[in-house]
Each structure stands twice: as structure tokens, then as C-alpha cells.
Amino acid sequence: MTGATAATVVLNGLTLAALYFIVASGFSLIFGLMRTVNMAHGSLYLIGAYIGYAVFEPLYDRDLWYAWYVAILVGMAAAALFGILMQTALLGWMQGQELRQALVTIALSIIVADQLLARFGGTPRQFFAPDALFGSTSIPLIGNYPTFRLVQIGVALAVGIGLWLLLNRTRIGLMVRAGVDDRPMLAAMGVNVPLVAVAVFALGAALAGLGGVIGATAQPLAQGVDARFLLTALVVVIVGGMGSIAGTAIGALLVGLAEQIGQALFPTYSVILTFLIMVIVLALRPQGIMGRAR
Amino acid sequence: MADRTILEISDLNVHYGQAHALQGVSLAFGLAPVAIVGRNGMGKTTLCQAIVGLTKASAGSIRMEGQEVSRLPSYKIARHGIAIVPQGRRTFPSLTVDEHLRLASTGKGGAWTLARVYETFPRLAERKGNGGTQLSGGEQQMLAIARALLANPRYVIMDEPSEGLAPVIVDHLIDVLRALSKDGIGLLLVEQKLALATAVCDRVEIMLNGRIAASTTAAVLMADLPMQQRYLGVASAGH
Q1: Which of A181, A184, A185 is facing B94, going by the closest CB pair?
Q2: Integer Cα distance of B96 and B94 in angstroms
Q3: How many alpha carbons lie under 13 Å from residue A191 in its C-beta half-sphere?
Q4: What pLDDT digit, counting tens, does each position of B180-193 carry?
Q5: Rounded to two decimals, what is the model's pTM?
Q6: Where are the alpha helices (DSSP H) in A62-146?
Q7: CB neighbours (10 Å) of residue B116?
Q8: Which of B48, B90, B92 is the best mutation test for A, with the most CBs of A within 10 A?
Q9: Among B75, B92, B102, beta carbon nearest to A190
Q10: Which ipTM score applies to this complex?
Q11: Which CATH superfamily is domain B7-90+153-232 in?
Q12: Is A186:A175 a contact under the CB 8 Å cutoff?
């Protein structure tokens, strides 16, 4: 493998890691505060992508430059709205009952997948990135590289920095972090914890929706994508440590790079690599790389 | 009693499964500090937790300034002006000292401000940037007390606030607790250390098996060694 190929493979791994981070950070955020293993996180990705697409298509047909940006906003809003509904109508009522919540969210994911199939059909769809983000950029050593993939990394960085600022520099961030430690005590201080939980769920869901539109711009959107992203999000947060944003970033990097490097070196067995990482982490550090033992 | 009632508990019951932890407790508290003493497992902590909603009462009523709060979620009880320093401190390991205190200060004004807390507990000012897990037991205890006071409550419940504190800090704590009524803050003090309880509070309630077994005063209890023996199992005042 030449140096240029190797660099390309690594950059591919980074861009994939960026997408995984966007999706998994929301998953990790929701788990961190509420201990809810949201098995419908992939459905939130699908909802963001499909509803974003429904708004995108007519705008794009009229050649409006902002079609994609609107899709991003609508996709995030749709996923957030569905997330709020999930938390207030279902999950909030079974707080602390983790198995029940997992089963309810699995049921939801099946229902959502079928409803989207009924409404949008099985034809794969893909967003077209706006002209400003389309085409290729010249990078030393690698040569021309799709601009949108670099944008993907930029968005992931923005999400990571934004989440860090939110959690460490704002009052609501303090509430979220305190709530991760001790929800009842936080409530005894006068904080409306269920309301914070809904806000966190909405944010985590919006990030899944953002991942949906970004992901469906980079690669086709079709049925079954939800299961793939849910599985990846699970692996990422198990490796990185549940509820830690830095851990999620590390987990996403490991999984993204492993997938791309594995595909380049030994395509047939590359799938194993991801799970090999998971097995090693679980054996040596069951709480995940950045996770805290509890 | 000249002291106007702030917090009133009537016929409060708490069950843990089959165990009847609190059996019809009725008490009224005003601005003057009240101590609750008793051996371990007599229901003191359960009473504290039931008042702030950390434990659900199975029957009875809790009135704060005349308003029923016993059926409310704990965040609403807190908004009625009740704060707690819980047993085991329950500070947040993820937050630094300063973050704790900023989270606790409502910004609505009141006697206790961030500056006053740091002045009262200089040790906390020194440890401002330290995370919850890097603090000693005594520092966590100070933090838990500061956190409750920063809410500027009308009534504060402290469950073993001297636990883990060095003797010199305990003396300082006594001064802080005695002065609370001047800020208009009522105090319910659950305390194993009889010397501390009686130094702060004139009125002492003794709990036995989930009930109030005796109501007395600090002076009477300190003078009555057989009474101490019977209810507290201590040979001398304090440890």
C-alpha cells in the first residue's frame, strides 16, 4: 500500500468516525442522564433523514440553494419532536426500569421502520450536498478528496465542542452532569429533573436526526440503515464508555478507523475487527475507555 | 409557644415494604432550631428524607407554611423552601466545588451568597476547582452544607452534618448553625453527637422505633444520664 493510499484510508476512517460520533453522542447523552438504552436511536436517525428528505426534494427540484440546509434543520427538529414524544408519552413513565424501556424502544423501532417503509417505499434515496460543500478539495499527499466528507469532520468537531461547552459552561450542563451522578439529590435541590430529561432527550434525538441527514448525504438512505447505526452507536459507546462525550469521540475514532483500515487490508474479515476491539475493551476495562466504574 | 410554626408534620407514616419505619410522627417546627436524637435505625433519616420527598410517605401530612407538600415531587418541595443536607452527603462527584455552588445558588438573592459561603468555609474556597471525588469526607460535608444554605431555604434539614468533620470545624459549624435563625432559616438537626445537638438546639426530640419517644430540652437531657442511657445508649454526653 502506497503512502497516499494509506493516508486516504485513514482519512476515510476519520470521516466515517465523524458520522458515528454525531449519531453516538446523542445516544450516549441520553444514556448518561437517564440510563435509558434507547434502542430506537436508529429510528430517530431514519426519521431525521426521511422527513428531511421529504422537505428537501421539492425544494431541490426548484433549484433552491438552501434546500439541504432546510433539510438539516427539519430533520433535526423532526427527530427532536419524536424524541420528546417518546420521553413524555412512554419512557418517562418507566424511569429506572431499564429492561422495560429497552423493550419499548425496540418495539418503537419496528413500528417506525414499517411506517417509514409504507410512506417512503424501499427505493434508496440520497441527498445532494449544496454546491458550496460539493466537489473535491485538494489535500497534500492524498490529492483530490470529496469536500463533503471533510465537512462531515467539521460538523462532528462542531458537535463535540458544542456539547463540551453546553455540559461544562452552562447551568443546564451542570444540571445534566449532576443528574448523571444523583438524580434524586438534584431534584431535592429544586431542579425539575423530568423537564431536564426531556430537554436532554430532545437534544440527543436532534443529534441523531442531524446524523441522519448528514449520513444520507454521504451514503444512500434505505431501510435497515437504522439497525446499522444503532449497532454502531452501541459499539461506540460500549468501547468509549457510556455517558462520556470524550469517550464517545474515542470510541467513534476507533470503530471508524478499524472499519476502513480493515476493509483496505483484509476486506473479508474486516467486520470482525470492530467486535474484536469491543471484546478487548470489555475484557480489560468493562466500563469503557472513559467510562466510570459504578 | 411564641415561635410561629413554619413546618408541621402530622401523623406521618413511612413503610419500606413490610417494615414500618415511621409510625405516626407528629411534630411542629418554628424558627428555633430543633434536634432529633436517637440510636441508629430509629427512623431519623427516614423522617428527614420523607420531608423532602426523597422517600415517599405512605400516610400523613407535611405542611410547609400551611401548604400541603407531602404528595409533591421533591423538586416542588424544594421550591417551597425546604433544603436538605442528606446523610452520606451526596455531593456530585462529576462537579467541582465551584460548579456545585453555582448550581445551588438560585441568584434570587437572600442571606447566603457565593461570597459568604467561601468566607464561612475558607477550605471550600481553597478547593474551588477540585472535583467531587478529590475532596475529603469533611470537605464534602462542608460542600453539602453550603449547597443547602445557598438555596436560601426557609427551613433546612441536616442529617448528621458533623460526620467526618474535624473537631475544630465542628466548633465552627456550631456557630454557623446557631446563627441560622438570624437569617430567617429554621433548622432540624439530626445528630449523633449529643454535645453538638445540645449546643445548637434547646429543644430536643428523641426517636425510638419510628416514633417520638420523648420531647425534652437540651438542659434536661444533658443532666439526665439515665435518660441518655435509655434512649441513646451513651454513658456520657458526646463522644
Answers
A1: A181
A2: 7
A3: 22
A4: 999 999 999 999 88
A5: 0.89
A6: 67-85, 98-120
A7: 15
A8: B92
A9: B75
A10: 0.93
A11: P-loop containing nucleotide triphosphate hydrolases (3.40.50.300)
A12: yes
